[in-house]
Amino acid sequence: MFTVTYAQLNAWLTAFLWPFTRILALVAVAPVVGNRSVPTRVKIGLAGFITLIVAPTLGAMPQVTVFSAEGVWILVNQFLIGVALGFTMQLVFAVVTTAGDLMGLGMGLGFASFFDPQANTTTPALSSWLNMMAMLAFLAFDGHLQMIAALVATFQSVPVTANVLGASAWRSIASYGAVVLSSGLLLALPVVVALLITNLSLGILNRAAPQIGIFQIGFALTMLVGLFLIQIMMPNLIPYFGRLFDSGIDQMGRVAGALRPPG
């Protein structure tokens, strides 16, 4: 007769549950796979499938009862690690959204908005379009596979027993948030500067010849200039997205290094 002791059952449960929590937290927060349009069952299934592959390679887990105070604390730490890594990668897509907001505002498209299921709110049309392009580029560059590989590597650098609540990684995530504004400004800078010059030219023309009716042609002109410049930027836009994704993967490694316990 096949019998299972409580110690064996606890060992099997901890070997699956703790890695599963870290992986599921990243899947729920990370870009593309964490999109609100992806069903919850798909996210749980994907996290469970990855865990079944990764768990046998992690070695022995701490001899702790899974539902004890220490076991629950380990579970909380795994959740925090996964959220930190997923949020770090999510910041890369915030760069694209910020650039779209800045360009759309200068083009006069700030009022044109769509419902974004990922953010669960309305976003400008240009931001939604750039975000969609970034997601397609992310999949084309195998960014989702690199992100999962970076997550799996953290099981070696940040063991399951790590206490990450007081780690310096949270400060590094906050400082990395400054990249969102700076990189978004750099991406939108050509369009913003060109639109500023266009608006200044229209203002000078309005002062020189008020009878032309600048307010009637200004909106159409700024939109055409913006769309023309975005079309010119397209050949260099995808490689720029690739560099952003590489930066996000590298930052995940730095965050994991900061989460590593001392010694």
UniProtKB/TrEMBL annotation:
Signal peptide range: none
Residue intervals passing through the bilayer: 12-32, 44-61, 67-85, 121-141, 148-170, 176-200, 212-234
Domain of life according to the entry: Bacteria
Subcellular location: Cell membrane; Bacterial flagellum basal body
Membrane topology recorded in Swiss-Prot or TrEMBL: Multi-pass membrane protein
Sorted UniProt keywords: Bacterial flagellum, Cell membrane, Cell projection, Cilium, Flagellum, Membrane, Transmembrane, Transmembrane helix
Primary location group: membrane
Pfam families attached to this UniProt entry: Bac_export_1
Family statement drawn from the similarity comment of this UniProt entry: Belongs to the FliR/MopE/SpaR family.
Function per UniProt: Role in flagellar biosynthesis.
Name under which the protein is recorded: Flagellar biosynthetic protein FliR
Species for this entry: Paraburkholderia unamae
